[in-house]
């Protein structure tokens, strides 16, 4: 079965929230509650423009800057940690649901013998992968904890994807990136990755293409043939 990728691709790097699992919806809910608790209205467009795909504190900084606010680093961390506590509560209440089409694609990749990495800004990735029964598919994980301890720049910079490729023992030009966030496809493009797949979960196909996606799909199994 074809994975819908160029022949030169020898490794696959997936974002987690919004690509493999529906947890992006839970993150959006947590961000909304956090910011609106501060008296700052927060829309889906705000999520896509300022927060989606970025490390937690970068998301806080970016959104508040859009409102002309420049809190201290201690305050940024407090807000980000509050959001993280809240999303964990929401995950406990609502659970983790992998996208069935994404699971089919992971199964096809595993059957084809192509190494799989997950590259995410989330610090909760291991928990989400376990809860979604996805951990057995993952050969390498670069998450929010790795980004901090390795002093990597977050998306839209390509550092985390480059580290994912390194852990799968390949080069960016021979790896594919799968992302639903504008910051993520921008990172894949900027890092010189051999193929960038945009997953449209928010009616932003044109923006995904503009930011660097080579192809845009609604579900990953559309690539299978």
Draw up the topology in text.
Blueprint: E1 11-14, H1 23-36, H2 44-51, H3 56-66, H4 73-94, H5 100-112, E2 116-119, H6 125-131, E3 140-142, H7 144-149, H8 159-167, E4 175-179, H9 182-190, E5 195-199, H10 205-210, E6 215-217
Parallel strand pairs: 1-2, 1-4, 2-3, 4-5, 5-6
How would you describe the overall organization of this protein?
The protein has 225 residues and is an alpha/beta fold. The chain folds into 2 domains: 139 residues, Rossmann fold (3-Layer(aba) Sandwich), CATH 3.40.50.1000; 71 residues, DNA polymerase, domain 1 (Orthogonal Bundle). Helix 10 links the parallel strand 5 and strand 6. The radius of gyration is 17 Å and the shape is globular. The N and C termini lie close together (6 Å).
Going by helix content, strand content and strand pairing, the class is alpha/beta
Assign the CATH topology of the largest domain. Answer: Rossmann fold
What general outline do the C-alpha atoms trace? Answer: globular
Helices and strands, in order, run as: EHHHHHEHEHHEHEHE
The level of helicity is: 40-55%
The total beta strand count reads 6
Termini separation: 6 Å
Q: CATH homologous superfamily of the largest domain?
A: HAD superfamily/HAD-like
Q: What is the overall number of helices?
A: 10
- What does the largest sheet look like? 6 strands, parallel
Gyration radius over CA = 17 Å
């Amino acid at each position: 079965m074809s994975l819908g990728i160029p022949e030169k691709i020898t490794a696959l790097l997936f974002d987690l929230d919004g690509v493999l699992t529906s947890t992006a919806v839970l993150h959006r809910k947590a961000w909304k509650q956090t910011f609106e608790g501060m008296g700052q209205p927060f829309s889906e467009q705000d999520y896509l423009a300022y927060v989606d795909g970025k490390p937690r504190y970068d998301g806080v900084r970016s959104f508040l800057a859009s409102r002309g606010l420049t809190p201290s680093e201690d305050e940024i961390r407090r807000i980000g940690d509050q959001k993280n506590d809240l999303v964990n509560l929401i995950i406990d209440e609502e659970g983790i649901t992998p996208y069935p089409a994404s699971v089919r694609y992971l199964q096809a990749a595993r059957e084809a013998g192509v190494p799989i990495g997950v590259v995410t800004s989330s610090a909760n990735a291991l928990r989400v992968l376990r809860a979604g029964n996805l951990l057995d598919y993952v050969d390498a994980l670069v998450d929010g904890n790795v980004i901090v301890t390795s002093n990597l720049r977050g998306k839209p910079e390509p550092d985390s994807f480059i580290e994912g490729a390194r852990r799968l023992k390949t080069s960016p030009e021979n790896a594919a990136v799968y992302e639903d966030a504008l910051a993520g496809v921008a990172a894949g493009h900027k890092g010189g990755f051999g193929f960038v797949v945009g997953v449209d979960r928010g009616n932003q196909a044109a923006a995904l293409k503009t930011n660097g996606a080579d192809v845009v799909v609604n579900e990953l199994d559309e690539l299978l043939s």
